[in-house]
Amino acid sequence: MSQDRQPSFDRLLLIDDEPGIRRMMSLDLTADGYQVRTAEDGKSGLEAFRREPPDIVLTDLKMPGMDGIEVLRSIKQESPDTEVIVITGHGDLELAIQSLQLGASDFITKPVSEAALSVALQRAKERLGLKTELKAYTQNLERRVAEATAQVVASERLAAVGQSISALVHSIKNILSGLKGGNYLVRQGLKTDKRHIIQQGLEMLERNVNRVASLCYDLLSFGKPRHPELTPVDLREICADAVEYMWPEAEAQDVDLDLVERAQPLVCQVDRKAVLDAILNLVSNAIDAASTAEDGQVRLSVEEEQDHFALVVTDNGPGLDEEAQRKVFQGFYSSKGAAGTGLGLMVCQKIAQEHGGRVDLDNRPGQGATFRLVLPRRVAEPLEVVKVKEIWD
User: Fold this and answer.
1) pLDDT score of 281
2) Helix or strand or coil: residue 88?
3) Other beta carbons within 10 Å of 23
């Protein structure tokens, strides 16, 4: 801050119990351009200070009632930046040193000389000027840091949005290519009256329509904030339902889908539909991975620990490479290539986090992978024991 813009720091409060000293010092200081208010003791001095805070306080140390040390301590507690100069007698050096320890900027002795008072005031004003400059610099620095941070955050958000849109457009283009291919086959089949070509085209159209539905569902699931609707659920039933739903897909890809059954109910407070959706995503991924193995196998089980349950999906596929491990929970990344939306595992992670849980990965390169949907163990009323239905009949 330039010198001409600095405050003048000319507001003074003089506290002294001797009327003659108050009068003479007030006249001299006023003549030097200061705005001077006076108080006859410590109590009235503090009251004057609180009514209209000055820049600098000059206070006698020895006064009846509240002495200068108490005044100094109170002022520094209420306004640490206020400069306080203490006035002391020749025999009060110990009190003067104590006042400096309490934050006084200077002390002058009686009888007060004009030169000593001028030097003390000048030093106090310089300290005030430095504090003001430092405060202004700090505020300006904080503002600049905040502005820079906001710009960085905005840039990162814009980049993230751009990456997401780019990946989403890429997924849509892949689906459109499949739809166009199916449409072409249907038209060719109709032109040549070849039913098998029409059938191929319809199957391609159906696959890509399902991909559109899956993409829309995953986008809605990931983008919509929600609170789980918790109800007591036997986790064995969720696993049984998941196996029943995914059995046709496993059979179509020549994968053995196995459910490890448990005799006792495993009851937990969860959002049944959400957890089932998460498990279906994990099982679907596992089936795709296991389909590349000679004897593809996927196993679904429930683990019970002291403070949590874990729904575990294991496959004997190739496992995940380094890139897949880094990106597996990122949006729009899929190891399935054009066949995946790249949102399934993000949706699983989101559902787990909404329950206060997580998704863990145990990767075994060349041997498969295990995903664990970990859910905190919540107390639930025992459910009526219902035998999990046989699904291999």
Assistant:
1) 83
2) strand
3) 12
